[in-house]
Structure formats: C-alpha cells, structure tokens
C-alpha cells in the first residue's frame, strides 16, 4: 500500500468520478484505474462501485477512505513540521539592539541561540543615536526581523512587547562615599561632575530626563561615544554616570537610584503585518527567556 494510492482513492471519492479525479491528479485515467485495482487486490476488498460515470464508495470503501484521509492529514502535518524545523535550522535573523543591550544581555542570548541553532546566520545592528526611531523604520521596511527599543512608537504595522523593566542607577568612582551605600537619590548628585555619553544618544537623553525630573541640570565634565570609555573614565575618578543596569556592565560600583521614576522599559518590536520566520521566532523566545533570567538576578529596587 503506497501513499499515492491512498491519495488517489480519496481524490476519486471527493470528485465522484475516475475521470475528474484523473484530471485533478494530472495522470491518465487508465493509470489511475490500474492503481486502484492493485490497491483493491492487495486489500482483498472492493473500494468503489461504478454507476455510469460516477464512482461510489462501497461500505468497506467508506471505512477505508475515513482512515486514508486521516493518514494523509497526518503526513501533511508531519511534512509541515519538518519544513518548519528545517527553516529554523537554516534561516537568517537580523536584529537591532541598543548598545547597552548589546553589551549586557545579547552575548548570553547569542550563545544559547547558536548552541541550539548553529547554522542560523545572525546579523546584529547596534545603534544609539536616534536608535528607537531608526529601528522602528527598519523593522517596518523589513530590513530587520526584530529590534530592542526604548520606546515602542505608534506605527500601526509594528507589534511591541515589553522585554524588561530595569532599574537606573549611578556609577561611582572607587572610594566615593555614596558608592558604599545600597541606594542613592538623584538629589545626592546635584554637586557632582558627570561623565556622559554624547548628546543625541538614548542613554544621554535618559540621563538628562532623570536629572530634569529631579530638578537640576547635570554638570557634564566629559563626554564619550563609547560605553567602555564611560566606564574607564568613571573608574579613574572623572565623575559619576547615570545609567541603567544593563549599561553598567560588570562594574561593582553601580548603585540603584531610589527615585520612583528611575526605571527604563525596553521592548521588542516586529512587523505585525506578517508572521515572523521560524528562525526569528525562535530567537525571540531565547531573548525573552534570557531577559527574564537577567531580571530575576536582582533584588527589588530600594524605596525611601
């Protein structure tokens, strides 16, 4: 018994005619009749009765057709599952990330994803200046599958899902008195000199917003375009820096701010007009799993 024989029998039943079934199957009617005759001989039963040009299943034929239809459906489902599995293992993923996400969260995500899907080609785009708006445009145009952004925007063709809400804190130079405390307040920093990322970037905008809400403008002593330089300058005592936890790297001198608005929400965006590819969907799952693990590493934020 062959799968194509099952398909032939089911098609005859659906079309009600050997002639019409042969046309639909794109085979010659004599060949179709031969295959059904072989199947009936193998089974030892008659599957169809001819009434003029019509083919009517026998009672045994109806039982056979019910099972054959179920088997063919399972075969189709299995084929689809294998095709999806193939696509996951052979696809591509293009991802846009903020520098702090690329530094603090992405390495672990990439390691886990590559272990599970070693043949996937992954492209990452890291951007800080106007990153959220630019990533939204690139996802909307289909240039990126996914992007991690600070603001979700209002493009109707994008879906945005909260990835994590992280605390914002202060990087203090070694030996700074406030660096030994469990928490700090923005009001504690009014007289401090600041090390900051260049204007226009997301982290600089975030720092300015935090200080503005606390009622002062930060005294920026030095600017840089790189997170690694910011860490080094704080470490040599050139000032303090206000950054989210992801942007603090592995430094021990980061102290959480207890101001109630000192939070940053990050979201993952993708096009809602069409489904994600299997490889991109698998990457999204790994990304959210790592974000949940990362969030659970830290105790609840301090309060006043």
Which features would summarize this protein structure in a list?
304 residues, D-Maltodextrin-Binding Protein, domain 2, 3 domains, eight-stranded mixed beta sheet, two-stranded antiparallel ribbon, 10 helices, 12 strands, 22% strand, rod-shaped
Compose a concise summary of this entry:
This protein has 304 residues and is of the alpha/beta class.
Largest sheet: 8 strands, mixed
Number of strands: 12
CATH overall fold name of the largest domain: D-Maltodextrin-Binding Protein, domain 2
Q: How many H/I helices?
A: 10
Helix content: 40-55%
Q: Could you state the order of secondary-structure elements as H and E?
A: HHHEEHEHHEHEEEEHEHEEEH
Q: Strand share of the residues?
A: 15-25%
Helix-strand blueprint:
Elements: H1 3-15, H2 18-25, H3 29-43, E1 48-51, E2 54-57, H4 59-90, E3 92-97, H5 99-104, H6 106-116, E4 121-126, H7 131-140, E5 146-149, E6 158-171, E7 183-184, E8 193-197, H8 202-214, E9 219-224, H9 227-235, E10 241-244, E11 254-257, E12 263-271, H10 278-295
Parallel strand pairs: 3-4, 3-5, 7-11, 8-9
Antiparallel strand pairs: 1-2, 5-12, 6-10, 6-11, 6-12
Helix pairs in contact: 1-2, 1-4, 4-10, 6-10
Describe this structure in words.
The protein is an alpha/beta fold and 304 residues long. Helix content is 44%, strand content 22%. It is built from 10 helices and 12 strands. The chain has helices at 3-15, 18-25, 29-43, 59-90, 99-104, 106-116, 131-140, 202-214, 227-235, 278-295; strands spanning 48-51, 54-57, 92-97, 121-126, 146-149, 158-171, 183-184, 193-197, 219-224, 241-244, 254-257, 263-271. Strands 3, 4, 5, 6, 7, 10, 11 and 12 form an 8-stranded mixed β-sheet that branches. Helix 1 crosses helix 2, helix 4 crosses helix 10 and helix 6 crosses helix 10 (278-295). It is rod-shaped and about 100 Å long. The N and C termini lie far apart (76 Å).
